[in-house]
Amino acid sequence: MYYFDDDPMFGNSTAVSILSGDVNFPNYNEILCHSSDGTVSQAKIELVAPLFIGENKCQWTVFRSECRVEKNSSYLYLSGKDNSKKSLDKVFLKKPEKAVDLAVCYGHSFMLDEWQSLVVAIELYKFFGASIQQLYWRSGRVEIYNLLKKYEKDGIIKLDLFGPTVSNELTEMLGFDIQLEISTRNYITAINDCFLKYRNAKFVLVIDSDELYIPRLGTNLIDELNYFSILNPHANSFVFERYDTFSNAYKNPLLFNIESTLMSMQISTHKRNLGKSVVIPSKTKGIHQHFGSYFKSNTNVVSIPSKLNYIVHNNKITLLNDNETIYFNTSKDKNSTIFYWLSIEKVNEINRLFNDRIKNTNSFKNLNSNYFYKNNLLTCKKELLERLWLRDDVCIENYDYCLFEKISNVSCLSAKINYKSYKLKDDLVMFKKTNTVEIYSSNGCTY
């Protein structure tokens, strides 16, 4: 839960939190916030973003709560409306991070064993001026986790554990597993936590690790976004189209080279149905994975024409063995190559900085060169999830429906959240996170 002293959208002395619950939760429940000075206010509860296509099939969703509290509060108590007793122990309030120009919010990782596109993204966003990059870890290979901790130590990223919402007590109480009833792997909770954490940023880019926003109209991302802001002074966000991209990279970290990976890219003419957004927090309350939500009045969403810029969706990456050769994209059509954005000198500079900072470290050299999960996930999605999407009774894109076998001698780290339950009133129970811990396994990753 975050405390905002003077926020353009949330106002003065406001405590804001992200919570998940039954889709009808706000319709029949009211929560009271008790400040330390004795004042009480009712929490305003709303969806963090309007339900998107297919999400209305889910029984569980994500909300944002806001309540007025005593100025400079560091904690509060919660209760149900009909129960004035402070039924929940102290909920401590955090302050958002200091003001920065650009924060990058990644969706959470799960069963992560391919690191190539993630490394390219981190390096490019660092090079082009991202102030901080926030990642959330659900599950994946220990080797990749160790590399990300190295990036965090260097101040380039912030890495938080982000476990699934799993509680045997809650499942028994509800009669169903909410992991099967919350859309898109609870992705929206992670990115909205990031959005609250970096509300003091001038711009927030909401992105996946295989998506690259590279500036064309400025030397860095801030210059380009400032330019778009000057052209569109009433903008609350900028939406960029996405185009699928093919590229090659080596499996072996000792052979991996950012320069050759970038120069192998072939941007297709296939445009995704939905783009991705850079959001202005001072004019926006929440975010979906593709767009902002709950905007300041008299502001507007600005769609950036692809002739000005668009996002490279580097989702079709081929991993090569040591004896294979990466072939550069030498097309005369510059628009289909990385040179639509970068000169060869820039590509070389990005590669040199990566080599100097990361490539020769043990964290990078020890990365895995064997891969198990991406193909399994793609198979699951194609053979099962795409069929489930057509049904009206099944929540969408949830890999808990798939079976992933144990894999011996594959070290993985997963995040696990521990909860404590509190009864706010007879028919209202709140599960409060007590901590998130690392769970190691030598038999592969869990979803």
Automatic annotation (TrEMBL):
GO cellular component: membrane
Enzyme class: transferase
The enzyme's E.C. designation: 2.4.1.-
Main location class: membrane
Transcription keyword on record: no
Pfam families, alphabetized: Glyco_transf_92 (PF01697)
Localization of this protein: Membrane
Membrane topology, as annotated: Single-pass membrane protein
An annotated Gene Ontology molecular function: glycosyltransferase activity
Record's signal peptide: none
UniProt keywords, alphabetically: Glycosyltransferase, Membrane, Transferase, Transmembrane, Transmembrane helix
Family stated for the protein in its record: Belongs to the glycosyltransferase 92 family.
The protein's name: Glycosyltransferase family 92 protein
Native species: Strongyloides stercoralis
